[in-house]
Amino acid sequence: MLLAITIWIFTLITVILFTDLVPEMLELASGQWFPETASVHGAIVDAQFFNTLMVTGVVFILAQVALGYLVFRYRERPGQTAYYYHGSNKMEWAWTAATTVLFFVMVSMGYGVWLDVYVHAAPEDAIQIEVTAQQFAWNIRYPGPDGQFGIVRPELIDDAAGNPLGLDPQDPTGEDDLVVPTMAIPVNRPIELILRSKDVTHNFSVRELRLKQDTVPGMMIPLRFTATKTGKYEIACSELCGMGHHRMRSFLDVLSDQGYADWLEDQSEF
Amino acid sequence: MADAALTSHAVHEAPTGFIRKWIFSTDHKVIGIQYFFLALFSVLLGMILSIFIRFNLVWPGTEIPLLETFFPVGAPGGVMTPEFYLSFLTMHGTLMVFFVLTTAPQGGFGNYFLPIQIGADDMAFPNLNMLSFWFTFVALVVLLAAFFVTGGAPISGWTAYPPLSALGEIAGPGLGTGQTLWIVSIAIFCVAALLGALNFITTTIDMRTEGMTLMRMPLTVWSWFVTAILGLLAFGVLLAAGILLLMDRSAGTSFFIPGGLVVSDQIIDHKGGSPLLWQHLFWFFGHPEVYIAILPGMGVTSQLLSTFSRKPIFGYRAMVYALFGIGILGFMVWGHHMFMSGMSPYTAIFFSLLTTVIAVPSAIKTFNWLGTLWRGNVRLTTPMLFAVGFVSLFVTGGVSGLFLNQPSTDIYLHDTYFVVAHFHIIMGVAAIFGIFGGTYYWFSKMFGRQMSEFWGKVHFGFTFVGVYAIFTPMHFLGMAGNPRRYAELTGFDFLEPLASIHLFITIAAFITIASQLIFLINFFWSLFKGKKAEINPWQATTLEWEIPSPPPHDNFAGKLPVVYRGAYEYSVPGEPLDYSMQTAPKTAES
Question: Which helix (H) or strand (E) holds A197?
């Protein structure tokens, strides 16, 4: 066993040097585990992660050290006899109660932010944007100046003819709808996404915004957030959707108010 | 012999023909060995698939010699296509979950040792037992056939979420015939698992020998018993879900397919179904399935820790209650797989709280294992090393679960490599450590020869360090947001800096997999050339250690044992040896 572990330690050190992992690890050690958050709720999600890390980290270290210590301390030696002991109900109750309280306090702290993103109604002035996923692309729709999304009909869908959502030309509210492959939003404004899918289940996720939600065919799922930092972020599919899952990418531009207004204007010119 | 055939004990006569003895055997020991080898074949195949998976993540687009010969469509020019990668991913998961983790600990060790440990001469229904193995075998053959049909194996993952899995070839390669074979295979497997579960439950309740009260049963028996109850309740649901999915594919029903779908510009003629219905049915099976894989490992770990600490198990009753607690709660937490699925967000909080409850019996088990080691006289044999490794992995995989059972943190970690790390450690590797522990512990009883302790320890050293080297960095990939089930990591800017971590994992995986050859050589060499085994080489107390290695056809040579003690009476004060067999009458004082 010692032989095996020694070989491993040598191998791991070699591999770490060879694969250029040292800078990676230094970065990890400095706490840069997550990409910097760019949304209001993201900061709370991160805080809950690190609270959990503190609690479970202590539990993890104590348990592993205790395991190693007990095995070493009570390893078989001549003259040592094991203690004939069947356990103690008092201790069973003690550690049951302790873990229950610890774990429940910890997880309960995280429910507020969950309710913010998924349950609490979006503010009146939230900007509505519809996201429709398909194999293997994203369609982003803005309601246009009238603030209303036009009717879509599956039988009118025609990717080649430039109508990927099946917008109904007979419907006047759809005339000013804007359908684009990438998303732009203004910073510090509440956003409400409406998530849909044309074919199979996908998942809309943006790392920096701490957003992730399945897009399910047959459902319209709301997702609310406010971005706090301008920048260009990658939208990734996070639910296996077929052979092109790994390349189902789009972008989300978080812009200043002026930048967003300019972007909208640029898009409408087409 | 002719007369014996007329008596009620006729079934216990050893069969003489090769076919009845080794192929269509009704002997639970032979069936246990058959399950064991089926799982061994599956785990080797599953591991080979993971080599390709890890290879492609680090060196996509590289030509692999001979691959084109076997898979001209999936790997033109010897280069894996994304759909080929996903088909390997699907088959890896399916083989490992169903044909290894469900099969080896329960069908293999459970079949072999449950009857012996309760003092029975066979399972309650020997023919049913044979049938359940052969159903499993057919299920495996049907599954493997999916590699060789047009379009190849399915690409929808082991979870087979519709509509992807329900629409047929239009949704992608492998989703035609390959997906159908996959569903049929799983349905057959469900039938096998149901038959097996019935048999285990009946045997445990009805076939215990005189004096084997419930609270004297080894914890291995308790774990197989609870696992069988879970299997009986869970596999029925998966069977029903599989049949519904088949009907959606071929009978025009719409259980899982909603209206208005447009795939590749074609309208799908279905309406009214719900993709979430499948997820509910699947995870109602799928979460108990996690415990079906891990509970027998807990039983083996308890048995080994007590035996090799030379000490009674700490808190036997608490261990039994915790097993039942985990089993019952295991049916109430399936929704934690679905926080991001679009189900009601209130439900998420309900499932999150119940999942937290399940952490409590899991913690109780860990405390009791540590309590068993405390003030013991610990013999670090190979099986003991794997049992200690199991506890370590169970703790590691358990605490990472506490990040995922909170919907708020799961928003970020869902479907990333953090999840891959979590479930591989707790459900895959910990359960495998239970299987390794059981193999090194019971090999001598099953095959009459001993495995090499030295090479067993070397194997442990490589494997224990290896699995941590593979799966620890995956947590960091998850924290960096790396989604799982990506065939290549070249499509996103944010994945580029993670390439070196992936390379590290791949190298660690290759070395760990290669070191499993130490186990295989030790196993097969010992099978034929190992030292002849004694009856009780580990000085253990349970009933299998009182009969020859390997045991005779009816286990106890016609004379069922009488039990006087609990299963873990080690180091009893005032007795001559540090272990007291279950059949040894208590002395006056004790």
Answer: strand A190-197
Half-sphere exposure of A97 (CA within 13 A, CB side): 6
Cβ–Cβ below 8 Å for B493 and A243: no
CATH number, domain A126-268 = 2.60.40.420
CB A223 within 8 A of CB A196: no
Alpha-carbon distance B139 to B230, whole Å?
Answer: 20
As beta bridge partners, residue B579 has: B570
From the list B72, B118, B79, the residue with the least C-alpha distance to B219 is: B118
- Residue A213's closest CA among B213, B342, B217, B535? B342
What residues of chain A, 32 to 91, have a C-beta less than 8 Å from chain B?
Answer: 33-35, 44-45, 48-49, 52-53, 55-57, 59-60, 63-64, 66-67, 70-71, 74-77, 80-89, 91
Q: Spell out the domains of chain B, with CATH numbers in brackets.
A: 24-546 (1.20.210.10)
Give the nearest chain B residue to A247 (CA atoms).
Answer: B491
**Alpha carbon distance A58, A61 (integer Å):** 5
Report DSSP state, residue A163. B
| Chain B residues closer than 8 Å to A30 by CB | none
Which pLDDT tens digit goes with each residue over A142-194? 999 999 999 999 999 998 888 999 999 999 999 899 999 999 999 999 999 99
pLDDT (tens digit per residue) in A34-68: 889 999 999 999 999 988 999 999 999 999 999 99
- Residue keyed to tokens 């991160």: A46
- For residue B8, what are its two tokens? 């009620």
Q: What is the mean pLDDT of chain A?
A: 90
Could you give the CA distance from residue B363 to residue A99 in angstroms, rounded to a whole number?
7
- Is B375's CB within 8 Å of A166's CB? no
Count of C-beta atoms within a 10 Å radius of residue B247 = 15
Beta bridge partners of residue B360, listed in sequence order: none
